[in-house]
Write a structure and sequence with these properties.
7 strands, single chain, 7 helices, alpha/beta, Rossmann fold
Length: 203
Amino acid sequence: MNTTCTCTSSDTFVFLRAWLRNPLRVASAIPSGRSLGQLITQEIDPACGRVIELGPGTGVFTRALIGRGVAESDLVLIEKGREFTGMLAERFPQAAIVESDAAKIGQLELGGPAGAVVSGLPLLSMPPRQVMSILAGAFRHLSNQGKFYQFTYGPRCPVPRPILDRLGLKAVLVGRTIQNFPPAAVYRISRRNPLAFWQRNAD
């Protein structure tokens, strides 16, 4: 049984067309596979509450989150590509679909704090300032113990150490999958001192 990809031919066509239009905005020419979806969501369950997904594309990670028991109504899907937002709205009608650049997430009103952020964004192709805006903005919406999950096709964490240090964050490898094409790794990014963050925001 092939576990590298569960996408339909239409999904692949939409993804390929988006990639050809802007290779730096779309991480790959084909959607992520089921094995990567399972890996990036393996630490997430209904107890997390609201989950924000950045760059959901055709919804591979979204399906994996729902498969983990996360309620569709607890999902906030932030997608810049108009070619994807209509598809997402049809497939996940109970989720909140926000058409926006993920770098502006800190300026968005998304309701209460989220327990996790799942990112399908191609951080390696983005300038450092944009990566910092995405992370800083995402953590404004995360609860004290909230986690940011990011995948990469590269050999190391796609967020440079200086950015992690500046934002008071740490990154830990969750795992790798060679069943995805291309092979990928997932990192969990979290606050180094959640207590200090909580005290600062409680004042």
